[in-house]
Structure formats: structure tokens, C-alpha cells
From TrEMBL:
Superkingdom of source: Eukaryota
Family the entry assigns: Belongs to the GASA family.
Encoding gene, per UniProt annotation: LOC104726579
Keywords, in A-Z order: Gibberellin signaling pathway, Signal
First and last residue of the signal peptide: 1-25
Stored InterPro entries: GASA
Source organism: Camelina sativa
Protein name as annotated: Gibberellin-regulated protein 10-like
Length: 87
């Protein structure tokens, strides 16, 4: 009788911790991209591409423009046309 309760408790902890990790990763990119795109003329497009780049590179340069040397992966990502993908 105790084994199913313990098993349920352990599974619940694992699910909760994995959901917490996913939510903090997304909010980290979202917060950094909100700052990065705060002065963009096309904010919706800027946020879309910034979040794509952040998920792949796990970093976003500081400020609203430039500073791409802080994150080489972010700097080096290119679109299919060869132009910089990340804002």
C-alpha cells in the first residue's frame, strides 16, 4: 500500500521540477528579448527571431542594439538569404 503512494510522490516531484525548469528557461529568454526588442520598430518580428536565437544559443546580447560580440552564436546565425538572423 505504501509503495504506490511513494511512487506517485516521486513521479509528481519529477514532473513538477521539469515543468519548473522549462518555465524558467522560457522566461529567461523572454525577459532578455523584451529588453533587446524594446525599441524595435517591428517588435513582434524582433521578439520572434530573438526568442528563436536565444533558445538555440542560450544567450542574448545586452542592450537594445549591438553588443553581439557578447554572444558569438547569436552573432553568427544567418537567415537563408545570408543576412543576420538575430536582432
Amino acid at each position: 500500500m505504501k509503495f504506490p503512494v511513494v511512487q506517485f510522490f516521486i513521479i509528481s516531484l519529477l514532473v513538477t521540477s521539469s515543468l519548473f525548469m522549462l518555465s524558467t528557461a522560457d522566461s529567461s529568454c523572454g525577459g532578455k528579448c523584451n529588453v533587446r526588442c524594446s525599441k524595435a520598430g517591428r517588435q513582434d518580428r524582433c521578439l520572434k527571431y530573438c526568442n528563436i536565437c536565444c533558445e538555440k544559443c542560450q544567450c542574448v546580447p545586452s542592450g537594445t542594439y549591438g553588443h553581439k560580440d557578447e554572444c558569438p552564436c547569436y552573432r553568427d546565425m544567418k537567415s537563408s538569404k545570408g543576412t543576420p538572423k538575430c536582432p
